[in-house]
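pinned: reference chain
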Amino acid sequence: MYTTLPPTGMRDFLPREKEIREYVMREIRDEYKRSGFTEIETSFIENIENLTGGDGAENTKLIFKIMMRGDKLTKTFEKSKEADELAEYGLRFDLTLPLVRFYANNRNDLPTIFKALQMGTVFRAERAQKGRYRAFAQCDIDVIGDESNLAEIEIIQTISSTLKRLEFENFTIKINDRRILKAIVIASGFSEDDFSDIAITLDKLDKVGIDGIKSELLSKSYLEANVIKLIETSNHLAEFGLDGIKALSLEGYENISQIMSVITALEDGFKIEFDHTLVRGMGYYTSTIFEITYGDLGYSVAGGGRYDKMIGKISGIDVPAVGFSIGFERIVDLLLSENKMANTDVKIALLYDETQSLLDVIKKAMELRQSYAVVSLYKLKKKLGKQLVQLDKAGYDGFSIYGDEIIVKSFDQAE
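pinned: its structure tokens
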């Protein structure tokens, strides 16, 4: 049976919604480019081995898999009926893994330090709910080939400038280094092999609290003494912050300290703070990680980190890399909820009746387009009030009736 609804977790966009999304995309893209990032485009579809072998952590469980076809599917099915064995490709779940493959394939044609810009849709087969979709846009910038802190600083500065351009103020950039986090975990008595699992649990701190973290770790049969020491160290660092890291002589302190000193000097309408509990879900991060929080929201609006080992997994040669992604969908929702979507382009409707010359009407529309961003022609309806309500709903800022003395009227002048 046919249905008019899109598949669960997918969305259609009305003209006004699409217009707003395109406006935000243009603003983000333009600000990224001003900092020297150059735009590329990667495939929506990736080889399944790349997606499952890239240490995408929990997201590897959310891949939309594409089955083999024809004889290949038949032969494989004869050997195994497991769904994972029958998949050949998958839809990308972020833009970083495709970028890594792209760079490994095109490295000889790219600058030594490559500043990449990507904007596109990604897909995750998660349980659809309010605010969480199975297809959504990401807006990434990455610096590949620069092992210095300049890469992190430039990326953080560009993202903060972009948010300010979109009229966001008083946001917080949280920063950590996964080497610090790993050192804390190992110093608490856990093995290095335990780190990834413990990091996944710690990533839930803002949702379940310290007691929830303790309960989950104990439920996984970790030694209580180790769990208690981890929590004690965490509480100590929560009190003393970056000074606590310096006192413990942990690797990563100089890295974080230098980045924070520069960004702090640039602060204007935002702040940066060290957060030793920051994890980030992706397992491919090697050192610096960061997120941006805004207001009382229970989630971040942007995030990223350094991933110096990913390219080497494909090409055999490690290349330093760091990236940051703006949560486009969350930004759009916030702009709409806080009424920050100013009408930068004025749209009007030019109404005419059948007695008027189409040539003259079109000439008038062309004349008005010298002053207004959009001028669209519509035949004048008998029920003008109803027509104006529909035009207002469609996102027009005003209207003009051909031949009237008043060139353009707002909808509240329609009486």
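why pinned: The first strand starts at residue 38 and ends at 39. Residues 347-413 form a domain with the Rossmann fold fold (CATH 3.40.50.800).
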